[in-house]
Amino acid sequence: FAKEKGRNNYHFFDPTLDKHLQQRRQLLTELTQALRGNEFELHYQPQVQMSDGRVVGMEALVRWRHSQRGLVPPGEFLPFIEGSHLEERFGQWVLKKALEQQAIWARSGHLLAISINISAAHLLAPGFANFLRRYLSEHPELSPSLVTLEILESTALDDMQRAGKVIEDCRNLGVQVALDDFGTGFSSLSYFRTLPVDLIKIDRSFIFRMLENDSDCAIVESVIYMSRRFNRPVLAEGVETLRHAEVLRDMGCDLIQGFGIARPMPAGEVERWLSGWTWNLDARSTAH
Ligand code: C2E
Ligand code: MG
Ligand code: MG
Ligand code: MG
């Protein structure tokens, strides 16, 4: 009763908040239609293994192909989907679409791992691992070991026990789990101990300034060191220059991803990009 009363009061007294609420509802309606109308598309960004320059995988990154606004980046609409009734359905669409794409590549001879970003509510929704199990068994052409689920530290933080359980369930299917944007959460270090993840992705904010900023450099170096100590491969995201790549390689980083290799691209461009890909890091030094 108190809540109802509160809501009425706020409708009455705060017309600006009400307007925001209406805009939010309007956008959510648009997003629902976008999902139905197939207006979302996945772009793919390569992930490269530093030891030999091989492209080992692609991260699927969603965009909204909007009739008026063009290609809308996820930062502008995901916050509205997350926490809404659309979140799980949207997440399922991304998951299926990315897995389908991997199967298409596999059929044409490109054995690429696929990395899929999974939101907290989607991961923790009942039946997530069961859905994945069913999907993978219905599609024997997909190899579970080539599927990586990227989850944010904050996902695990919200409900550590349940997150840990779902992560275990997924890993029992043979699927890999990566901790995305590592270092931006609250208890990063304890995750090394408690979360059974296969890959650590160092947040790009640390990579961005690591060449100029000594403490960022120290953080990157320490995370790489810790990952190796725990026998977990580590990926640096946001690698924009050759110099970054060289320094990261010398620090012992396993994988890199970033504009310096390629920007996220539509699925249709991937094969052509792959055939033109050359690795020019080895030519300069062979420290490790
Ligand atoms: P993320 O998973 O950490 O993805 C990396 C983001 O950094 C992507 O932004 C990518 O385009 C960008 N990036 C990659 N390399 C570089 C670089 O060298 N320099 C710079 N400045 N940026 C780089 P994007 O595509 O805008 O995605 C932003 C975030 O939205 C993602 O961060 C992820 O958390 C979320 N997201 C994207 N697609 C999905 C999805 O399908 N589902 C869910 N749940 N979240 C998604
Ligand atoms: Mg990611
Ligand atoms: Mg990230
Ligand atoms: Mg991010």
UniProtKB/TrEMBL annotation:
Highest taxon listed in the record's lineage: Bacteria
Domain EAL: 24-278
Protein name: Diguanylate cyclase/phosphodiesterase with PAS/PAC sensor(S)
Organism field: Marinobacter daqiaonensis
Shown residues in whole-protein numbering: 408 to 695 of 695
